[in-house]
Design a protein that fits this description.
Strand order of the largest sheet: 9-10-11-12-13-14-15
Structural class: alpha/beta
Helix content: 10-25%
Largest sheet: 7 strands, mixed
Radius of gyration: 18 Å
Distance between the termini: 16 Å
Number of strands: 15
Number of helices: 9
Order of helices and strands: EHHEEHHEHEEEHHEEEEEHEEEH
Length: 290
């Protein structure tokens, strides 16, 4: 496997919502807020070259929603999905698979574009889009808490395209998903139903995990630092504990979708629990590669 960090841009969200019950005095040490209590967050994808496939994990917020919608999220930064793909020598047409960890708008919005005639179509014409039945049903019939995060413009065009396929969940961990050897999935249900966390096995036993919203940033590593957006926060606590203890013991690399500074990190066990060990702006830098 080869990994490429794909930046799709930054946005802002309320710091209190991102850290739940944790006081601002504590979370602002790692994620400082502006005068409106907003923190900057990345929307970072991971491009994986594996076998004869080119897989993009998540695809940012996109650009098809209204100006009023985007005004709530203060999009900023020099990066975009297309420019980031071009920097590593690829385009949308090269993508064979788009793996969607879950269907909240900041993870799936870039999967659909608006054509000049106003029609919404998949943004990756040659790709298969991957979700799972439980989460797809959850998104198509949303609860009142998450309804604003599941946009029909992001979902119906994928369903109508014939390019959508479902991963079959076989337990907490599903092995060799999408028919790819070493592409395992940890299913996490605390943030939303059946969020998929890819566990990518590579380089003779090493693992890189794409953390999505199970661990948005290095600032969320302590167990109690759980987002107010999570539908089942106590379950998130259990999932984080299991996941991070395993990641520390087995020395996994954690790829961070929303951390504004660091794209990848490792963790280790301390007297206070699992804590940050090392972090870097890209996966390659963390591993000393150019």
């Amino acid at each position: 496997m080869r990994f490429h960090t794909i930046h799709t841009g930054n946005f802002k969200l309320d710091g209190g919502a991102m850290f739940g019950v944790v006081p601002k005095q504590l979370w602002s040490r790692t994620n400082p807020a502006d005068s409106q209590n907003l923190c900057t967050w990345a929307m970072r994808s991971l491009l994986v070259e594996v076998e004869d496939r080119l897989v993009l994990i998540d695809c940012g917020i996109g650009n098809k929603q209204s100006e009023k919608f985007f005004s709530h999220y203060h999009l900023h930064g020099a990066h975009s999905l297309d420019t980031s793909l071009a920097q590593v020598g690829f385009s949308r047409e090269d993508i064979t698979d788009v793996f969607l960890t879950h269907l909240h708008f900041d993870h799936v919005g870039g999967a659909v574009i608006r054509r000049p005639d106003g029609q919404f179509v998949p943004a990756f014409p040659n790709a298969t889009f991957w979700s799972n039945d439980a989460h797809w049903d959850w998104a198509m019939n949303p609860n009142a808490r998450e309804k604003a995060s599941f946009l029909s413009d992001n979902l119906h065009p994928l369903q109508a395209s014939g390019q959508l396929r479902m991963v079959q969940r076989t337990g907490r961990v599903t092995r060799n998903a999408m028919g790819i050897e070493g592409w395992d999935i940890f299913f996490a249900d605390g943030h939303t139903e059946s969020q998929m966390i890819p566990l990518l096995r590579h380089d003779q036993g090493k693992t890189t995990a794409f953390m999505a919203d199970l661990l948005p940033s290095t600032g969320h590593i302590p167990l109690a630092y759980v987002m107010g957006y999570d539908t089942r926060p106590l379950l998130t606590l259990e999932e984080k504990k299991l996941f991070l203890e395993t990641a520390a013991t087995e020395e996994w690399t954690l790829f961070l979708e929303h951390d504004a500074v660091n794209a990848a990190c490792t963790v280790h066990c301390t007297e206070k629990g699992v804590r940050l060990h090392q972090a870097a702006p890209t996966w390659n830098e963390l591993h000393g590669r150019s």
